[in-house]
Amino acid sequence: MFKKYATTICTIALAFVAGAAFQGQKAAQAQSKKVYELRTYTTNPGRLPALLKRFGGGEIDLFLKHGMTSVAYWVPDDEALSQNTMVYMVAHDSREAAAASWSAFGADPAWQKMSEESQLDGRILTNVANQFLTPTDFSPLQ
Q1: Mean pLDDT across the chain
Q2: Rounded Cα gap, residues 72 and 70, in angstroms
Q3: CATH entry 3.30.70.100 includes domain 33-133
């Protein structure tokens, strides 16, 4: 009789440990998912070319230097928006990593010089909007 209870108790304990391990694995996977940041920049009239030049001329390299992964960069197809809007997406390991990356990027002397030089002909941006996105389980981007 004792053997029967011992076997049942061991089976329950093993199921509990396996379930806890599975939940721990799911939590670790959830924490390891990248966070994507969608950013929309609106420029002053005529200043979109200066913004695109700055991004293509080294700003993206500074993103990489500070832990950000470039996903894509776009100019909208809409005629009006194509004159003053750039949209892009970068990936971060977490929201905390994003904050640290943006802080280090903003303090980088190379970025400060690049920003200053790109705005000698006038301020480029009128608005910056960003949104953090977490991929769904079925998203090809993880």
Answers
A1: 84
A2: 6
A3: yes
